[in-house]
Each structure stands twice: as structure tokens, then as C-alpha cells.
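Schema walkthrough. Field components (list of strings):
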Amino acid sequence: MLHLLALALGLTLTPIMAQAAGDVVEFFLDNGMQVVVITDDRAPAVTHMVWYRVGAADEPPGQSGIAHFVEHLMFKATDDMASGEFSAVVEANGGSDNAFTSWDYTGYFQRIAADRLGLMMQMEADRMRDIIFHPVEVATERSVILEERAQRTDSSAGALFNEQMRAALFLNHPYGAPIIGWRHEMEALSRDDAQAFHDIWYHPNNAILIVAGDVTAEAVRALAEEHYGPIPASPSLPERARPTEPPHIANRRVSFTDERVANPYVSIQMLAPVREPGDQAEAAALVILAELLGGGGQTSLLARRLQVEEERSLFAAAYYDSTSFDPSGFSLVNVPVPGLSLEEAEDDLWRIIDDFLSEGIDTAHFARIKFQIAASEIYEEDSTQGLARRWGMELTTGLGLADIESWPEILAAVTPEDVMDAARRLLTDPVHVTGHLMRPAAATAEISQ
Amino acid sequence: MIKRLIVAAFAAFFALPATATIEIDEVTSPGGISAWLVEDSSIPFVALEFWFVGGATLDAPAARGATYMMMGLLEEGAGDLNAQDYAAAVEGLAASFSFDSYRDAVVVSARMLTQNRDAAADLLRAAITTPRFDQDAIERVRGQVLAIIQSDARDPEEIAAATFNALAYGDHPYAFAQEGTADTVTGLTRDDIVAAHGAALTRDRVVVGAAGDISAAELGQLIDHILGDLPQTAPPRPDPADFALSGGITVVDFPSPQSVAYFGHAGIDRDDPDFFAAFVLNQILGGGGFRSRLMGEVREKRGLTYGIGSFLSLADLSPGLLGQFSSSNDLVGQAIDVVKEQWADLATNGVTQEERDAAIRYMTGEYPLRFDGNATIAGILAAMQSDDIPVDYVTNRNAYVEAVTLEDLRRVAARLLRPDDLHFVVVGQPQGLSPGN
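Field assembly_structure (string):
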């Protein structure tokens, strides 16, 4: 097997460039609606998505959760359709539909047989302007989102801890508030709040249509002009200018104790730059840095040293969010083996980082990661839904077509020196937030019936 | 990102479903292994999925968790490569392998680039046929498994399902978590792991699904190479399990503002003549998609939950009709009442023609859209074979669904849905629920 190892260690590594994912075509309707078409005829299906350039970070103060709440309410009645009819029609045509909200975007999508595309556009165009926020529906759906918060956040010590960590990391930017909302503000979200938020942001000149699948760009253009074309642009669409972060000058600590914690861990987070239009090199270096330090598998530096060689961690990893509208986070996580304290786990993370900054990059590891990134462009093509989602995320976080298409090349061009420079800028005495997720000192006995 | 789950209401449009356009080749390798292939060279990689029927139920009572831990160890060193070197070699080829354990099967999934497929296959062969089970890797993975067991013991959804299974299945393997217990996992030896490997991965229990850039002839040789000289025969599987749980409510105290409810009763066999009727019935009751009775009544009308669903569990040895939801502690009792009412209503009155038509339109329209990528297709093909489903099922499946009549649905609802037998395990601090009522 040594020949395999030699092969793996760089002798025959041939970086492969991303192939175009079918054909990607972009154009704009006269009302400013952006359109992206990704053709893939392997299955007789399309994914139809409308993304709005608005998310939780665009909410008015005191109304955390309103972006996500409006997303839920978009499935209620319009002037032409009954409440719930949208999804019912999708299902009656053998399709599935859903929606999602993040800090930077809100998206709606259906996956359905390709010949139903026009019907999907007709309904999606209808609810863009003609959704009706009925007081009774608003009240019932508010209960649903409160249950959603209870299920996803309040029932999970880890989710509550993550929420607290973000709130500590962002001093001023609304990225510090949870997408689902703070419970006390969610409880007060009103019909008028929803209407006002929708009125500001849900317009064709703030929307991106993405169609991926067994369809041509010409067909999409004709249907889009028919269904979305007649909707007028908003003359008063605001700029997306969020409160920005002041310089971070003080380290902060978060300690969260919950009896539901099974495996205590430490998390270290800091602000990091993200991909910017025309300026993605730093983010590309950070993507590779995160992979080297703590990407998947046990070959990353943190996993190799702490899990395998020293046997001091159950799990250690690094995460970096390269694609967001405003600067976001770089984080390190360490789950120590039983018997080691979180203080030791925290020291272990910094010790490995220090070693990395002084010892530099294992070039064979670097080459493998570059090859993996190149190969991921091939694997990504297997899911046009995934591609459509990636395009939507990139476009709504402010990137343009040229940025998106050049991203694989920019990643491929990153050198070990680029990564070390970026690592030194990010990790040399960074101002950071350290979080400890803990069990109570006298942990409750095993839960039993 | 928050994903919105569901919405329900009325349908207004009628349309014919799309048809599946995939062509499945039935391949038998030179060594006699059967595989299904969808060949498509448009993207230069292949997805493979190997299902070995048997799974964690083959564990001896004293060695529960051995199969689960064994599967976790396959990528921790094989042939001449220790764990680190093996992982680096896989990474260097940009191949991806996953080794998963389930109650009734273990599954190996792989993606390999065309440009280095032979080298990737060598690595996969090593993991499957000559895993090392080095002692340091065993201890590392044991620590990870123990952490998972601890974590599950504090996760209300895991507690709910585990409690339900323990109550329903007595001393049958289905009563126990496949991860084992802290005691059994602590006691597992290397010999236990080696024995689990010999029992779970055998040639007579494997089926293969493949999709992507490979020909039938290449696939046959690749399979024989990867499976090498695995043992021919596996030990016998356990007998079918009796579902021993009667109707009622079991409350497990757990500190949370919300309660998880896991509920159900015995289900229906896949080869039962009424299986397709039950399949459609479940779609109407609480199936995927958005217009089920349970979603409509519990979420949309009353706002008692974020999501609720029911499913036909096709566990080989004891099929079930199961469901789950979460509700705030002060609402969960009300939600349980609504579930029972819906169960009773369907059992007594059956479904409406409109419900039947809408469910069938959804199920037949959605089906061909599933076959939309190499990895997905390979998984579907292997799963079908593991259930002994014939290859023409892909073509005929929608006709089976469409043949289900209103009368079929009435009959199967009366037979299958037994509101008095419904047992709810509620994990949380529910208000106003008395255990056993």
C-alpha cells in the first residue's frame, strides 16, 4: 500500500478545476429582479427559488425574529389563494416546498416536475406583493414559532450556548441576535410589524430568482417576464446598512451551566473577514486555514495532535464562515476527554495554535486539501439543488457573478505563505470570546424513568 | 439557518405526474454479487452503496455495541496503514467513504473520482476486508462511543425513542440501543470487534447500488475487488420481535420547557397485501409533505407544535406505525388528545375521496423527482434490493399507489389504526398528564 501513500502525498496530485455546472446564465428583468438559471437535464425536475436580500440582521430593533416570522406567514392567504393553498398546490402537483431564513437572506423554494415551473412562478409572484397578514393567522403562527424556538433552542443546552456566544461576540452588529428571535420579543411580534417588514423588503428589485434543473434560460426568461415582470419595482428600497462592529479591544468570557450537558466543551470565537466583492483572497486563505487546523476527519492539526497523538480530546475542530454580508466568525472547539478540565482544553487549543504559527504548514497536508477543494467542485455538481442554494447564498451576501465564478480559481491560487500570513493576522493575540459549556458541579444522576 | 417545516390546506390543481427516466442495469459480478447500476457519465465520479443486512441485531447480549463500534473502526487503520495514514490516503484521493451501522443493516457508502478510482477502490477494499482494529484506535473510538451514549442519555428525543423501544420489545435486540450501554461498551474486547466484523460483513448478505461514471463490466470487477474474500455466510438473524406495548402514557421526567412525545403501535409488513393502502393512509395521517391530518390539526389550526409526523417503520423484525412531536409542557396533553382523536376518526370514518386523491397525486408526483443525483440513486438502489423489491418496482410503483381505492383505505384504517393501543412516551415535565391514563 505504500504506493497509495506516495500517490496521496503529492507525487501525482493534479489539481482539477471546477467544470461549469451545466450552463449558468444570469440576466435581469426590467423591474430589477435578478435571474440565474442553472441547467441540468439529468432528472425531469426543477428547483425554483426566490431569494430576498433581507434577513434577521435587517430587522428593526426590538423585533428580533420578524424576518423568520414573515417567512412563515408567507404561506398564508393572498388575494387570490386561501391560507395554505400554496403548499397544497405544490403537493397536488407532486412537488415539495419550503423556505428558510438566515441573517442575510430569506428564501423560498419548490422542487417539482419541470413542466410545472410556470405555475410555481405564478404563485410565488402572487405572494410577493399580495400576501395578507390576517390577525387570527398571525396569532396561531406566533404560537408555532414559539414552539419552534422551544424545540430547536430552549430544549438544547448546546443551542442556548451558541446563542449566548454569538451575543457575546457581536458587540453592536445584529448578527448577535438569534434568527428565530429572543423569546420576549417574539411574543410581542404583531401583525403590523409583519406588514411593515414585508412592505419594505419584498419587491422584485430586492429579489433573486434561481431556477436549476431541466430547463433552458430562454424558457425561464419568458416565464419570468410573464409572471414576475408585471410587478413594479419599489422606488424606496433601503440600503442594507447595518450597525457595524467597533474595534474589539477586550476579551470576553461566557460560562453556561446546564444539567442537560453531557460532554462539556470549550469554544473560542473571534471576528474574521469574509468574501468581499472583488476581494476574496483573504477569505480563501482562511477557508484553507480552517481546513488545515480543524476541517473534517482526523488529519487536521487539532484532531491529529489532540485526539490521536495526545489523546486529550474527544473532538477538536475549527470553523469559518466565509460567506456572509458583514464580517463574521472564526471559531475553535475542543471537547476534552473525561477527567480534563475546560481550562486545560482551552490551553490545549492555544498551544496547538502557537505551534502552528511557529512551525508552519505541512505541505503534503496542504496539497491534499487543495485537491479536495478542487474535487468538491465535481461532487457539488451532483446536486443542482445544492448548487442553486450556494448561488443564492453568495448573491444575497453581496457577491456578484464574477466573484462566484472566480472563487474556485482564487482558492486554487492560495499558497502556504498566503495561509500563514492570514493565520498570523487572525490568530496573533486576537481579541476573542471564550465560552465554557458546563455541567453543574454535582451533576444530576442519570435520567431514568 | 432556520428551516421552515410545514403547512397544510386544500389542493386545487390536477396534473399527471412526471415519469422516472432512469434505466437500471442489473449486474452480477464475476464473483456472484448482485448489483444495480444507473450509468451516467456526465459527472466524472461514481457513487457506490453496499448494504449488508443483519446489522446491530447480530450483537450478542454481552457484547451490545460491538457492531456499531466495529463500523466506526473500519476507517481507523487498514492493511499497512495506521489510522492517520489511512485518513491521509483517502483525503489525498478526494474519495469519501462512510461506514454506518443500523439496527437491521450496516452500510458502506463511497464516492470515488474517475481519475483515481482504482486507487480509491484499493483503500476501500482494505477498510472492508483487512481493518486493523489497532488497540489505540479501539480505545479512541470507545471514548467517542461512550460520549455518544452519555449525550443520548441527556437528549429528550433519544430518551423518548429508547424508552419506547425498551417498553415495546422486552429482551429482543430491538429493545436496546445499537450503541450498547456504558457497561457493555467498556467491556468490549478486540476479539468482540473482530467477531462482529466477521458476522456483519458477509457476501451472502450484501447488495450493491451504484450510479455514475462506470460501466457494468467495470462495476462487476470493482465490486469483487472491494469485497475480496469476505466470509461467505453470516450467522442467523434474530427471530421477529413481538410488539408488547399496550395503550397508555409513560412520562419520563426531564428538565425542559418542552416535552417530546414519541408514540405508536404495531404496524404492517411490507409484503402484506394491504401495504400500499397503509402507505397512502399514513401519508394522509401524518406523512411527509404538508397537508396531513396531524399537521393540520395540531400545528396549523391550534399552534400546539412546530412539527408532527407519523411513519410506517419497516423494521425487518417488527414493523410499527410511529410518530413524534414536541410541545410546550402546558400544551402537550392537549396535543396528545388531538392525536388520539384523529386516530379514532380515521379508524371509524376512513378518509375522504379528496384526501385520497390529493395524497396519491403527491406521492406519485414526488416519486420520480427522487432520482436526482448519483449519491441519492445509489442509496435508493441498494435499499430496494435489501428489501427484496424487484427492479421493475421503479416503473410500477406509481401504479401500485394509484390502485389504492377509498374502500382499501377504509379497510386498512379500521384494521391498522387502533387508538386504544396507542402508547405515548412523553419526555419532559408535562402538565396535567398522569402516567398510564
